[in-house]
Amino acid sequence: MTIFKHRFHTFLVSALLSSVAALSWAHEEMPKSAHNEHNAHSAVKEQKAWGIGGDANAATRTVTLTMDDSMRFTPSKLSFKQGETVRFVIQNKGQLLHEMVIGTREELDAHAAMMVKFPNMAHDEPYMAHVSAGQSGGVVWTFNRPGDFEFACLIAGHYQAGMVGTISVSPR
Questions:
Q1: CA distances from 141 to 30, 55, 138, 161 (A)
Q2: How many CA atoms lie within 13 A of 134 on its CB side?
Q3: How many beta carbons lie within 10 A of that of residue 53, not counting itself?
Q4: Domain 46-170: which CATH number of 3.40.50.300, 3.40.50.2300, 3.20.20.450, 2.60.40.420
Q5: Per-residue model confidence as pLDDT tens digits over 3-49
Q6: Which of 40, 72, 113, 142 is most deeply packed, by most CB within 10 A?
């Protein structure tokens, strides 16, 4: 009986260590935004092709965006000058959860595909905001790179229904 208990204990310890290693590996393979579910306030300002997270005190302009269950943003076309820091006030006038995510078409396409696979994926990046029905959210962004970009709601089905807007950033 003692040998059996020893082998069973060894088996349990081995199984537990394997499980912990697998969970650790799986966590490391999660998309960055899923990591942020565990680090809710750890969003780091990172240079992106479409700009970098801005400081609210440096905002030179405030733009109010509304979104609703018709799967549209109002306004849907925005223009800025390179170097502008913009405070977005994002109002959800619908009954469903919506979000605003800024990026390139390629980035948004890739993220939208991930959202279809992982619909409960958490978000905590400076260029995105989840906004519950009837609520408001915000993003402060510095458009320090010229170009044509987009913003979208990447909740599964919303992007595919056309919930997208455009951003044009003109050079200084």
A1: 25, 8, 10, 26
A2: 1
A3: 18
A4: 2.60.40.420
A5: 444 444 443 334 333 433 333 323 233 333 333 333 333 468 899 99
A6: 142
Buried/exposed code over 74-103 (b: 16+ C-beta within 10 A; e: otherwise): eeeebebeeebbbbbebbbebeeebbbbbb
Average pLDDT over the chain, rounded to an integer:
81
Q: Kindly report the CA angle at 83 between 82 and 88, in degrees rounded to 5?
A: 95
- Which residues are CB-neighbours of 96 under 8 A, at least 6 positions away? 69, 133, 155
pLDDT at 112 over 90: yes
In angstroms, the CA 93 to CA 96 distance is 9
User: Is 122 exposed, middle or buried, given 0-12, 13-18 or 19+ CB atoms closer than 10 A?
Assistant: middle
141-166 residues labelled b (16+ CB within 10 A) or e (exposed): bbbbbeeebbbbbbbbebbeeebbbb
- Quick check: pTM over 0.85? no
